Amino acid sequence: MELLSEYLDLTIFGILGLMSFIVVWLSIERWLFMRALSLPDYQNFDRLTVDLTKHLTTISSIGANAPYVGLLGTVAGILLTFYQIGQSGNVEVGAIMGGLALALKATALGLLVAIPTLMIYNALTRKVEVTQALWRADRETRQGS
């Protein structure tokens, strides 16, 4: 339990920090790609879709799983709090509430990572749909003339 007590916050916050870094990195890459995208260069719709949706699964997975990582930290923090109270043999409400409050910070951080990530994912997904519609409209215009 000493190991868990010492490295719990560092591990959970490190994982959530890494997840945040990956989301920022992939979001900037997607934004730059979509900004520089040239629709006439694509002759095949499926190829366009593959290029547009690259890394979106990773962003979505991080957004969906960040709260669970935070929840894991909270559960481990609560477990640790109860273990320490059990070892001391002294049940004080203040110690329990203090431990629980500190444990909940992991869940809060998980939500702090998840909410903007899902907003970014939804914005990128919408941009993909708009780009696909523009590609189809451009193809129909070319076939009509």
Provide an overview of this structure.
- With 145 residues, this protein is mostly helical.
- It has four helices and no strands.
- Helix 3 runs antiparallel to helix 4.
- The longest helix has 52 residues.
- The mean pLDDT is 92.
List keywords for this structure.
mainly alpha; about 90% helix; about 140 residues
C-alpha Rg (nearest Å):
23 Å
User: How many helices?
Assistant: 4
Structural class: mainly alpha
The share of residues in extended strands comes to under 5%
Helix content: over 70%
Overall pLDDT metric: 92
Short description, anyone?
The chain has 145 residues and is mostly helical.
Helices, strands, pairings?
Layout (H helix, E strand, L loop, with lengths): L1 H35 L8 H8 L3 H33 L4 H52 L1
Helix pairs in contact: 1-3, 1-4, 2-4, 3-4
